[in-house]
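Per your request, structure below.
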């Protein structure tokens, strides 16, 4: 990612029919599995799998392998997945609508966000759950420049022209709605993803990402000004770990092992963002055109503003407080998506991980 959420929304529209068919098939599969064996059989199978190792696994990333996934890349480099019992873990690069991959069973887990997964759960009845979140704060922002737009507050939006991608239009409209701004008070200009029109002064603001276009503006010396959605009425978790209901019930030990390795990788990355950014660029820079300047800034922004919170300080990385779950559900509702917290979130695996590995709670030492 660093345009992963935008990629999600566009891809979800294209994948809608496929996801619906897969979801229906999986619902039947889950029902048959529930009838096929007893809880004792399931527990015995999980114990045997943990004892023998988990073999190969895979995680679908929603964007390219850059600093957005620095924790996963560190975990792979340091052998944390191997330590957790896996022969290998394939980090599958996006862009991708992760929900379709998870539902199809081609990956064990996907990294997405509450809005995209909530949309599929609400509209398709997809048997999916979010079991944790790397980003406590979503990174969407209305980006402007000090010398162009200078949109630092909600009131500054009025009378401005904002470039908004088609895939982000629902979120933009929800943002205006929750902040009591009449759509007639702003000009919404359809755009693609290249922010050059903002940099050239053709628009006043840009629907952007804190760890992408804002960094580009900074590196160009354009003095970016951000109006984050999370701080202005639209909070929701992102970089969420999504799995099927079937896996949540029948592959708990495997998923817990993935979470343990993820926590260890992100702990290292947060402690040494320079190391994490260097590892990302050395591994994937030539493939994806990454630069150490941008990846380092992204790593620092994530570590300081997005990944950690009072909740993670108390209960560990990836945890999602009840309040933040409710806020995410409210954001979905503002975008016209009706789903409950119980339908979207299940933090029981993460609770078990920390109960069994209390040393992982302290990610600062």
């Amino acid at each position: 990612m660093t345009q992963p959420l935008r990629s999600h929304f566009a891809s979800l529209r294209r994948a809608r029919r496929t996801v619906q068919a897969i979801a229906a098939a999986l619902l039947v599969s889950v029902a048959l599995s529930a009838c096929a064996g007893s809880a004792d059989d399931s527990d015995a199978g999980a114990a045997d799998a943990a004892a023998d190792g988990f073999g190969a696994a895979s995680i679908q990333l929603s964007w390219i392998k850059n600093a957005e996934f620095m924790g996963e890349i560190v975990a792979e480099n340091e052998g944390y997945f191997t330590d957790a019992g896996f022969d290998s873990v394939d980090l599958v690069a996006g862009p991708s609508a992760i929900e379709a991959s998870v539902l199809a069973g081609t990956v064990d887990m996907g990294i997405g966000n509450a809005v995209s997964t909530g949309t599929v759960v609400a509209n398709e009845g997809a048997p999916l759950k979010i079991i944790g979140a790397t980003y406590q704060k979503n990174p969407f922002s209305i980006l402007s420049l000090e010398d162009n737009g200078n949109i630092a507050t909600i009131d500054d939006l009025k009378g401005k022209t904002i470039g908004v991608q088609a895939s982000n239009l629902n979120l933009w409209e929800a943002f205006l709605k929750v902040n009591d701004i009449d759509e007639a008070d702003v000009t919404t200009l359809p755009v693609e993803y290249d922010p050059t029109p903002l940099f050239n002064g053709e628009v006043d603001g840009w629907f952007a990402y804190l760890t992408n276009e804002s960094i580009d503006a900074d590196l160009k010396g354009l003095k970016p000004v951000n109006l984050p959605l999370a701080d202005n009425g639209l909070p929701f978790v992102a970089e969420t770990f999504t799995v099927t209901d079937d896996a949540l019930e029948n592959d708990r030990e495997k998923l817990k092992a993935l979470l343990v390795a993820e926590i260890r990788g992100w702990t290292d990355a947060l402690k040494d963002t320079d190391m994490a950014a260097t590892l990302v660029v050395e591994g994937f820079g030539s493939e994806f055109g990454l630069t150490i300047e941008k990846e380092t800034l992204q790593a620092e922004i994530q570590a300081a503003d997005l990944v950690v919170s009072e909740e993670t300080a108390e209960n560990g990385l990836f945890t999602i407080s009840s309040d933040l779950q409710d806020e995410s559900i409210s954001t979905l509702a503002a975008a016209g998506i009706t789903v409950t917290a119980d339908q979207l979130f299940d933090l029981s695996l993460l609770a078990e991980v920390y109960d069994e590995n209390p040393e992982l709670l302290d990610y600062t030492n």
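The CA atoms of residues 246 and 355 lie 23 Å apart.

Regards,
D.
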